Amino acid sequence: MNKSFAILSIFAVVTLFATAYDALVVQAQSAAPAIPNAAAYEAILGKSLTDQAVGDFVVTNNCSGTGQFQTCNDAGLSLWIGQNQKVEMAYLYPNKTSDFGAYKGELPLGLSPKDTMASVEDKFGWPKVEYVPQAGWEPRLPDEGGTPDHIHYWAMYKRLGVTIIYNSPSATDKGATIYAILVSK
Question: pLDDT (tens digit, 9 = 90+) per residue, 107-122?
Fold first, then answer.
């Protein structure tokens, strides 16, 4: 009887330790951010591919190089490398696509993954009367726009350094949602 009790006691202690260890592992995994440095794209814009910060970003976000792009699928972003071997632009995918996870960092200029073309134009708007903001706001249309891929409308806001790519080829589809945000320095 004592031998059975001793074996049962050892089994109970091992089970207790295993359960406690599993709980710690689960806590550590849930506390870790999914994409630790995804928001740091701003810090590497304009920097050379040989810069330590760019190298760290590429490794941390599990990016892979293809031509002039460093693609970070899990992080929901891609970097465009110019001919001078500097990071010229970041492509942010605020919503999951077939190729990219959703970008987890803060979006530029107060944008949200749920924004539509109408809400972006409102956010980028200006006062109806220049010195009387309480008079209301007028939507801001893009400086340029087009549908180069015949699938997505590209709205370019040059003064803000962003291009919004929508999930619609139409410039008049005010309910179209954001597919990607291109940010340049």
Answer: 999 999 999 999 999 9
Specify whether the CB–CB gap between 50 and 44 falls below 8 A. no
Residues of the domain holding 59: 35-91
User: How far is residue 42's CA from residue 52's CA, in Å, rounded to a whole number?
Assistant: 15
68 with 122, same domain? no
Decide: 152 and 165 in contact? Cβ < 8 Å. yes
**Rounded average pLDDT over 80-86:** 93
Q: Which amino acid, one-letter code, is at 53?
A: A
Using DSSP's 3-state secondary structure scheme, residue 114 falls into coil
Is 100 contained in some domain?
no
Q: pTM to 2 decimals?
A: 0.74
Domain assignment present for residue 178? The answer is yes
- Residues 175, 116: contact at Cβ < 8 Å? yes
**67 with 135, same domain?**
no
Shared-domain flag, residues 184 and 140:
yes
Confidence of residue 135 (pLDDT cuts 50, 70, 90): low
Nearest of 54, 62, 53 to residue 35 by alpha carbon: 62
Tell whether 99 is covered by a domain: no
The pLDDT value recorded for residue 18 is: 42
